[in-house]
Amino acid sequence: MRTPLVAGNWKMHKTPSEARVWFNEFLDELGAVPPGVEVAVLPSFPLLPVAAEELAGSGVAFGAQDVSAHTWGAYTGEVAALQVADLGARYAVVGHSERRRYWQESSELVAAKTARALEAGLTPILCVGEPLEARERGEAEGFVLDQLRRSLQGVEPAGPDRLVVAYEPVWAIGTGRTATPNDAEAMAMAIREELAARYGAAFAERVRVLYGGSIKPENFAAILARPNVDGGLVGGASLEVASFLTLVRLAVGL
Ligand code: PGA
Fold first, then answer.
1. 177 has pLDDT over 90
2. DSSP code per residue over 10-73
3. Where residue 254 falls among pLDDT bands split at 50, 70, 90?
4. Is 96 assigned a catalytic role?
5. Which residue's CA is the closest to the ligand 1 atom numbered 3?
């Protein structure tokens, strides 16, 4: 049994004071985290101490959107996984398609970031996803599995609860286009099979595979209903308390 995870990726939005308001409103409306679902918020770095303060004791987890591939050192502008972990964060996104695209992050670099996150005690949310051309050529699965394999090179999570994979087709992110529930399910299943080949069937059976890309209250239920999809990585719809709450409630009782 996998507990669904609904994780809000705020990207480069909100000031620390806006984040404080959001956390307060969200916790007021949510009450307690409903049983059977896990909720996480992934704000940008300067907002993490605010998340740590405001979410303490609430059961809502938080995490970073990226971490350095290096442990420590003279790397101006970088943020170490250990710094993020020390704040009480549970997660770190690695390999988001925006980082792969705008900063030319290779899967090899992503593998190093994944390893640093694990060493620091964080659970990486490893993003994979194909560009539109690969899907149109019928090569989506090959593209995603190759990216997954290379992004996990040398990565040995201590257990299935220490890795989350997010399938985010690049053409669905921020575009309003979503994968069909069937496409999301087929890719989540292929990802799980690849994880089984890599880490064993018992491990793969318990790893959460999320879908991400233009998730909204109107389309989430149908995607969540598919057996291999264990929640969502939500961008735009996580910025408003009301829509994120609706998504959390849709995931309850899956
Ligand atoms: P979106 O972003 O929900 O705004 O498409 C998803 C993501 O990039 O994680």
1. no
2. --S---HHHHHHHHHHHHHHH-SPPTT-EEEEE--GGGHHHHHHHHTTTS-EEEES---SSSSS
3. low
4. yes
5. 235
Among 230, 233, 163, smallest CA distance to 199 is for: 163
| Active-site residue, from 98, 168, 185, 194 | 168
Whether the pTM exceeds 0.70: the reply is yes
Report which residue type is found at 207: V
Quick one: pLDDT at residue 253?
64
Place of tokens 């549970």: 90
> Is residue 13 annotated as part of the catalytic site, yes or no?
no
Look up the CATH superfamily of 64-241: Aldolase class I (3.20.20.70)
- The amino acid at residue 148 is L
Pocket test for ligand 1, best of 91, 126, 173, 247 (most atoms within 8 A of CB): 173
Looking up tokens 């990207």 gives 11
Distance between CA atoms of residues 169 and 33, nearest Å: 29
Domain segments of the chain as ranges: 64-241
Burial label, 63 (beta-carbon count in 10 A; 0-12, 13-18, 19+):
buried
